[in-house]
Amino acid sequence: MAKKAVIIYGPPGAGKGTQANLLAWTKGFVHFDTGKFLDLLVHDKDNQQDSEIAEAQKQLDSGELVTPAFVLKITADEAKKIGEANFNIAFSGSPRTLFEAFGDDRNKGLIAVLEETYGKENIYPVHLVIDPQKAILRNKNRKICSICYTAILYNEKGHQHTTCPLCGGALRTRSVDNPAVFETRIKEYEERTAPILETLKERGYRLYEVDANPLPFDVFADLKQKLGL
Asked: Is 214 a member of any domain?
């Protein structure tokens, strides 16, 4: 069976990372979480003397997108390694700009790298569609484990968890989930990421739209059905 590359898009709070994790846990995909990778990279104390990484940290913590050329190099290199090892791959919200996706005269975009590694017919762009108010609620209350990065499902009737149910680590709020930077993240998504979807359709890709408002396991059932998994 041909290996697959699934690219999951949607606004902040749509559940991109959760769905990519479910593909990894149940369908043998490698979830390359660009946001998590960058978060770990820029907040690693051993990297603080690197001026490029220090600038990336400022951008990430403010809600802005990290410099596309910096992100493109990271994601393209890792995607090629994963594909050449014959693994399925799932991206959650990446590539995030037209440049990261399609490159320019001097830089090969991630889509081209995936086409070379997986074949265009095995690339599946997914759009998670969600009520904006539900997305805001999820982001406002999102907690993740400070040790294993497990995301804790928000329960509107009360957050019962004080530690990670998987490893027992302390929970924290990601810098990018701060309500003060949420509007910036939404604006960045609408202006810089959403146009990728239309460009993919113009280039002959089928866009798989999935309702992201239900609970994650229901969303995943719909995702699997639409992707034939």
From this structure: yes
